[in-house]
């Protein structure tokens, strides 16, 4: 499954009265795994939104907040990723009474993130980390070739985070992820982008970088601003 | 930005308040607010005595059950159809117009019109509540949907149908808000149902009317207390799991009432004869003469009924609005912890809940009996009921304010800390209440104050439904006008719900209400 | 909390099951003759009065008969026009209104007193007004209440006399304030309490309320009696014979005229019923038309 590249070429991007990104020229080729880094407010989320919009239906999204429907069960939150593949009538029926096949499919995905036992609990009852994993499961269940994730493992410990990123990499051809942990980024990405005040200040293959280079690129802007300990 | 926006922003909260107050004073000067009864004292004393010596034998359990049944079915039907309408509300101007029309006509007027077709049967009672409530529900639900933060919508796969998207990513997070709001509306529905009894539906109001007319105040008091008990216990019997039982039970017990005859035949007669302007009835519509006559007919109604009625309605509602506002500002400390203390607050709260649970129509009816016919009883009734609603809401807001540790106490706290911070919300709520007060003012005409309802009552007594229809439409137009003005003012003052996102002051009362705690009341009657 | 709710709910359900049965009791086989009446006075009395009539008619006619109370004069007329009721006890004006709307309907019986009915004007003692054979100029400028808007003795006929006595001026121009109390008992209460100085009432209601001890003679008294006019009557829809069989209307009229039980007549304030016909009400119709109440 090879898609076309995502191209972004823009002088200024933002909201009325506020420019977030400047002088942006970026191409993401199919199969790339891009880690977008930078301190908060540097424009990461805006860039990811842009990538998601350009991907035009070929991307699944893991937004920064888990974006779950708290009243619905974990099952329904994950099943949401495939609403477009069924008729409205079937979706409404599934809302009231899920079919066996759908439950099995969702359970398999939840198993990958270690949440299978929670399948019928209301999403609002879960812990922050669990909610984030539901959000990831939803993207896995979606299965579109591109995954756009905004800090998809921020609430998980490094071991769990690493496992989840591996799952995403296995399922999706192309990854574009905002991450704040340089070690995780270098371990799972093939390319690292560092943003500072709306400009790309570093764009390099991951294998050419050491954690210290990444830390220098955005640690220099404001040491420790990521709030997470960037390992040396 | 319109001219109004600019003007309003220049004069600010103070300017708008003073303008409304000035209009209120002017209205008070032209209106008739005399105590016309020669000895109001003894009559009031007899009422008070009755209130203290309720005759519990007068309580009719069936009338209570019927009241509940009408309210449950009316509000239920209004809620269901309002929900469906809410889905189309943002997209179709026709739906918005329909909803505005439905809610601009008071349930009593709906009942009077429906009676002409359906008689005094159960359908009249249920529809009289359901029709205006559907319009209100649609608007409020649509606002809730619009205001809701629904992050899950973003992650739905592209190409998801709108219906699936709404039921998965929208409705589940809104259902609690909808539930709270519907529960609150049920309380309003109970009050509306009570009032419908005064025109003949077999609810507690039917018996209250009889008791008051006969001067049997102990019986009236007992009936009133039984109604309070029904309202106060709503949190016990109105729960998510009781809803199916309530609806089925209500449908089963709904009284047969007065049979209406052949509804279809009556509808045809109503639509093709009764509401057709008299000069056009059976006339040759291709010739000019009937149209000229109809024009004159309409002009006559506008000059002699709509104009004086509308003026009286505006005068009454303006005075009532100002009195309500003053009363709310004076009363809200009663339910605020900082002012009333831990002992006073529950008492104040109980007082306001009782006043709020008493329909203003009933209050006006009783006061009219004691004080004699003028606008005074109507103003007192409107100000008390709506003032209690507003004070309750403001008291809650006052408790939510974060005071500094060394904040002053008493009057200094009130004028330096509390009032300045609450004033925007207060103004928003008062303006929200404006068109509600206007509709009620029009209705009070049925009790004898010369507002629009007085002329509607007259037209119906003379069986001139064409005239009644014109008058009801005029009332609806007036209500819509005031609603639009209120909305424009709130927007200009930036106390509109949308302002919240722009860092403004307040969310609309029904959202306040739906945000959780019980016992809230606002929007509508 | 939950237990209370359960108990309440059980009660409601029980009501749901028991009530239709209880309320369906009067749904005997065959059509039911349903009648109503203009609510001209105290409701308890109306229920007593018409409950007795219903029982009497049911026994004599052999069909189920049911009385349904309404809250206003127009509601009584509307239910007659809509076919919700087949028979009604109307006042002069409401009868004319109803018969104009329902072709074929007929006045079939009236009280003996109704052939020459008179309105009474009553005054609060505080006004110092004394009884007089004519409408005295001293009543001008007072507060005044009618009964219902379409009441014959409580509005239409007295207004006609008032206009005659005050040079064609409308009551609103004669009095400081004009109200519509809704019914005669209430007019009496309002004048007695001083809410209004003056009012006009139906003599039969006045007598009944007096006998019931609800009139305080030290506070309110009669100051004028109007000239006579025809008033209350029983009116039957024209389609009744088609439903209940030929001659049914005749039979109802005869049954009403045949009532001689004082227990039934007394709550009406009538000595007996006599036959009536539509033509007798022509004078009322003329006045109502002149007053703009009828087209």
From TrEMBL, chain B:
Subcellular location per the Swiss-Prot or TrEMBL entry: Cell membrane
Lineage: superkingdom: Bacteria
Protein topology in the membrane: Multi-pass membrane protein
Keywords: Cell membrane, Membrane, Transmembrane, Transmembrane helix, Transport
Chain segments annotated as transmembrane: 12-39, 59-87, 108-131, 210-231, 243-261, 310-335, 442-461, 467-485
Record region (Disordered): 499-525
Gene Ontology CC: plasma membrane
SUPFAM superfamilies to which the protein is assigned, alphabetical: MetI-like
Keyword Nucleus: no
Broad class of the protein's primary localization: membrane
InterPro entries: MetI-like_sf
Listed PANTHER family: ABC TRANSPORT SYSTEM PERMEASE PROTEIN P69 (PTHR30043:SF1), PHOSPHONATES TRANSPORT SYSTEM PERMEASE PROTEIN (PTHR30043)
Stated name of the protein: ABC transporter permease
Organism expressing this protein natively: Lichenibacterium ramalinae
